[in-house]
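Hello Y.,

Per our agreement to keep a running log of every chain we model this quarter, I'm adding this entry. I've kept the format consistent with earlier entries: sequence first, then predicted structure.
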Amino acid sequence: MHLRLLLLTASCAAALLAPTSASADSLYIDSESHMPASVDAERFYGLVSEVASRWDVGIDGESEYQAGYRNGEQTIGFSEDIDSDVLGVTTWWARAVYTYRYKKVCRRTSSGRKKCHRKKKRVFLYDEVVEQDVALATWVPWQQGPAYPTAVEYDLETTLLHELGHFADPAADNHVYGCENSPMIDVTAPGEWWRDSDDWLRFGCLDSTGPRYKRDGRDYKRFEVVRHRLPAVVMDESERRGPDEPRPLPRSR
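Predicted structure for the entry above:
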């Protein structure tokens, strides 16, 4: 039986985004574009599917588009357009949703008659995610698993767990720091991993498991979230969709 860990960060609770039907919890996989030599296409597709299920994210099939560009199709894949100090980038396009509310305003005319009219006011409802993509760095020496990363490899499963955590809960910032037991750590080093709450290694953290390497000189890389603002829309309040419940951590394997 899968068990969900009940760890909430303050940043997750700070900003909830209401997904549209276009950004419902599913995405396509690009297992062809810019694939690293260390990652097998079939293994990548299967690993993404496994990790996505732990975040309750569905897989729609193979994508015809490269990840990281708005094209109407949510995609995860590898990209060469990533900074050298970044492992993965979750990009989302969102817009503010407003509605009009009306208030009856009355006044007395000079003759003493009461004259009323309706005053219209635009009211903010929520931010709505229209599309999300996940792009992973092509040039990284990946460990695709099931083996654990060596002292010079970055763990692909850990990176997928992190990036799809952003996808599943597109809050303003749900990174954690230090030795917190979570895949949503802000940076990672070669040789580190987080595959489950009882299967993780982070240098300098006594609660983590696995072998210890020296921390000095490690090439730490970060995870990035890129947010694009689209023009706001106005909808009738009857069309309003409330935000989903936040999901702080993936299900255990």
